[in-house]
Amino acid sequence: MNMSVTTEDSTCSDDDYVDIGQLDFDKLRQAFQKSNNKNIVVFDFQEAIERKLEKMVQQNPLRLEFYEKYKKIIEDYNQGKDLQSVQKAFDDLQEFMKGMSKEESCAIFEDLDEETLAIFDLLKKPSLSKKEVEVVKKVAIKTLDTLKKEKLKIERWRESTQVTAQIKTIIFDSLQWLPQEVYFDDEVGERANLVYQHVYSNYPGGDGSVYAQYEANPFC
Q1: What is the 3-state secondary structure (H, E, C) of 20-56?
Q2: Are 58 and 202 in contact (CB under 8 A)?
Q3: Which residue of 17, 149, 153, 193 has the fewest C-beta atoms within 10 A of its own C-beta?
Q4: 7-29 CB burial, b ≥16 within 10 A, e <16
Q5: Are 72 and 126 in contact (CB under 8 A)?
Q6: CB distance 202 to 210 below 8 Å
C-alpha cells in the first residue's frame, strides 16, 4: 500500500508536524492553518493514515473499502498542488480519519474484540433481526475460540494438508449453528470458505496472529 503524497519542498518546522495518533482534529486544523508548508502537514497526515489503514485492513478484510476511498483522495490530490487542492485534500483526509475512528469503535459497539469482529463481519447479513445478530455473534465467538484452543496452536499448520482439512471442517461445522431460516446450505459453505481464508492469512500457528502482533506493538 503506497499512495505517497509528493512534496516539492521537504523543509518543515515544528508547526508543520502534528501527532495524528491523538485524533485531536481541532489542533490538527490549527497546525494546518498556521503552517508555512501545508503540503508537509498533508504528507504527515497521509503517512499516519497509511499506517493506521494498513493495520485495520490486515485485521479485517472487509475494510478494503476504506483503502479505495483513501486512494481516491490521494489520486485527486496528486493531480494538483495549488492551495485549493491542498486544502481539499486536508479536509477529505480529516473526514476519512473520522470514518476510520468510527469503524474502529464498531468492536466496542458490538461488544466483541477485533479478532471476533472480523469473523462476525464475514458472517453477518444486513437483513438479520436483533435476535439473529446475537446468534451470529455466538457462532463467531465459538468458531474462533475452538480454533485457537486446538488447531491454531500447531506451529506452521498451513504446511499440513491434514490440519488444514481439519480446520476447514471445524469452521464448516461451527457455521451449521447459523440461523437456518436465513443461511442456506450453499451460503454456509461460501461463508465457511471466507472464514477459512481469513484464518489462513492471519494465523500462522503457534498462537501467533496479526492481532497479537499489533497488541505487542500498537504503534506499528
Answers
A1: HHHCCHHHHHHHHHHCCCHHHHHHHHHHHHHHHHHHH
A2: yes
A3: 149
A4: eeeeebeebbebebeeeeeeebe
A5: no
A6: yes
The β-bridge partners of 205 are 208
Residue type, 27: K
Query: Which grid coordinates belong to 154?
Result: 500447531
Burial of 132-170, coded b for 16+ CB within 10 Å and e otherwise, reads: beebbbebbbebbebbeeebbebeebeeeeebbebbbeb
Q: Tell me the three cell numbers of residue 109.
A: 459497539
| CA angle centred on 15, ends 37 and 66, rounded to 5° | 70
pLDDT digit string (tens) for the chain, length 220 residues: 443 333 333 333 444 333 434 445 566 666 667 777 777 777 777 777 777 677 767 667 666 777 787 778 777 777 765 667 777 777 877 777 777 666 555 544 466 888 898 899 899 998 899 999 999 999 999 999 999 999 999 999 999 999 999 999 999 999 999 999 999 989 999 999 999 999 999 999 998 888 876 554 544 4
